[in-house]
Amino acid sequence: MKRRWGQLASASGVLFCLAGPAHAQTIEAPRCGTGVHEAEAFGLVGFPQDEIFCPLIADPKYPRSFASLLRGTFPSIEKPSGKGTTIASVGLGDFFGLVRWGGPRAGEGLQLDVVGAIFAQFDLDSASNDLINADYIIGVPLTFRRRGFSMMARVYHQSSHLGDEFLLRSSPIQRENLSFESLELLASQEIGPLRLYGGGEHLFRRDPDTVKARLLHTGAELRSGRAHLVQLVSGVDLKTTEQHNWAQAVSGRFGVELTRPSPEGHPIRLVMILVELYKGPSPYGQFFQEDISYVGAGINFSL
Fold it and tell me: How far apart, in Å, are the Cα atoms of 113 and each of 76, 100, 136?
């Protein structure tokens, strides 16, 4: 028995030595992303762990996990003007990689994912912090990266629902049975610390059918450098919709990004702390026909 344990210990030591240093895990990361694991950098990879299209900083409906405290004008929440209302906006969202075909350079290629997200808003001025609205999203994005250029094509479904406590309020509430499927296309170019992106959506099934089909989407982001422990980040996101006669929704965010470096020095993105500003047609499904505005602060999580 002692001999067997000795052999096992010797074999474990040999395997430990052959395994090489634990820090050889991640290739060089772009400014806006975490990079991909070295073992997954080339060839065909099933269930990849990382993303090759960087998340958008300022888009309020980009799938992510976050919590924000917002104060502003929300007409349907507090009659008659909605001014001076405080809400909490939270989201749970994640991309799950299905397959990646690695490109000619490490971290490049074509990737297929499935994505799910929930966006919810709560009225903090009410006695029980009423749930106001919840949007549910499920989609299938196909992403591509080649050097600093990346693209995302996504087919997704969204349905929106009012909260029960909000519906029980004494004032009459106009409920919308809003749901749709959409085809989204975004192209992104990174130029040093600057990132520009643009594209649009076409809603090909809409309920109610009075919802218009077309949406244009552009934006820009700026980062102080490649992520280390702390870097400054900012972004502006612009959306114009046929539904609102091409009136513009402007979302701006700026703050700091905190990361934990891996042993070889590449960043592992953890959290962004952001100041948020918004003005334009509401991004919240049940209130898509209203104009809102707010300022606030939030924390975004990304592993």
Answer: 36, 9, 17
Whole-number Å distance between alpha carbons of 290 and 244? 9
Q: Are 219 and 56 in contact (CB under 8 A)?
A: yes
Asked if 223 and 235 touch (Cβ cutoff 8 Å), the reply is no
| Residue of 93 and 20 predicted with greater confidence | 93
| Domains of the chain, CATH where assigned | 44-301 (2.40.230.10)
CA distance 81 to 156: 34
Handedness of CA 101, 107, 109, 113 (dihedral sign): positive
Query: Residue 52, class by beta-carbon neighbours within 10 Å (0-12 exposed, 13-18 middle, 19+ buried)?
Result: buried
In sequence order, the 6+-apart residues with CB closer than 8 A to the CB of 272 are 57, 233, 255, 256, 257, 258, 299, 300, 302
Whether the full predicted model's pTM is greater than 0.90, yes or no, is no
E strands, 108-223, in order: 109-123, 131-146, 149-162, 179-191, 194-207, 214-223
**pLDDT tens digits, 136-185:** 999 999 999 998 899 999 999 999 998 888 888 766 677 777 899 999 99
Distance (Å, rounded) from C-alpha 41 to C-alpha 49?
A: 11
